[in-house]
Amino acid sequence: MLRMSPIRLVPAVAALALMAGLAGCTKKPAAHSTPAEVISLSSSRPEALSQAEREIRAGQAKEAEARLRGWVSANPDSPYRPEAQYLLGQALFAQGDYQNAKKFHDEVIKGQGGRVLTALALFGRADCNFKLADYREASRQYHWLEQFYRDVSAVPHDELLFKLGLCCKFAGFPETADYWFDKVIELYGTGKYAEEARQNHSRLGPGKTGEPTYYSLEVASFSDEKRALAEAQAYKDKGYGEVTVREVSMFGTSYYSVHIGKYFSKNDAMRAKEDAQLAGINASIRPGWASLPR
Length: 294
Hints:
Elements: H1 10-21, H2 35-39, H3 47-57, H4 61-74, H5 81-94, H6 98-110, H7 115-131, H8 135-148, H9 157-170, H10 174-187, H11 192-200, E1 214-222, H12 225-237, E2 243-250, E3 253-263, H13 266-278, E4 284-288
Antiparallel strand pairs: 1-3, 1-4, 2-3
Helix pairs in contact: 3-4, 3-5, 4-5, 5-6, 5-7, 6-7, 7-8, 8-9, 9-10, 9-11, 10-11
């Protein structure tokens, strides 16, 4: 069963509070800073914004919206305006007004709110499109975040990858969905979104363990099958065994990834990845589901 919280404010509190204390600065918060620790840096932050956050967390999104609209109207030139617009987007999202929530997130993205706030607004906008069932657009936006904002710890990347998978699943691309679900299982195997990924995986689903029967190392990916096959042959010529090319269809476009090896335990795959890195090969562990040889 899909279980997703409607609003994301705990990481936003930490990220936004730091930015409030360092207005105009794009420095990101420390990875393990707690909200209380970061808020201590933000003595000049407008109380209206802090109060609005508390109201959204308490389920009083309508009150938060009124408070924020009043503050934005009264403070058009404040350096905290992008933060207030982001919170307005969150308040509207919590009320189910996804179209207008997107508009406020777009204003933040176009403005000068800094990298952390921009990443949160990008995530908020993608969430709005997800709720509006515009899965192709949401997928593109989640993927942009996954590619260019991996360093922003305020963005919950396990949730992001899981939602990427859901977008592909709901858009009718199960193989691509499974690709993203695999990544969630690989990277966040003990987290709640890994369990959700197993439940939504086309080859796993409810009642199955989600344990892969083998792992391989993905070493390259191409949009051209001939280039992928040539790359695979180059690895074979170097003496690597079990070199395969897998085709994945992403929204109607095929991609071809080159895989090396077949390892029947995660530890063996991790050791193989370390060996590959020592040899100068950038590899990622990929789970697979196939019948074991008799």
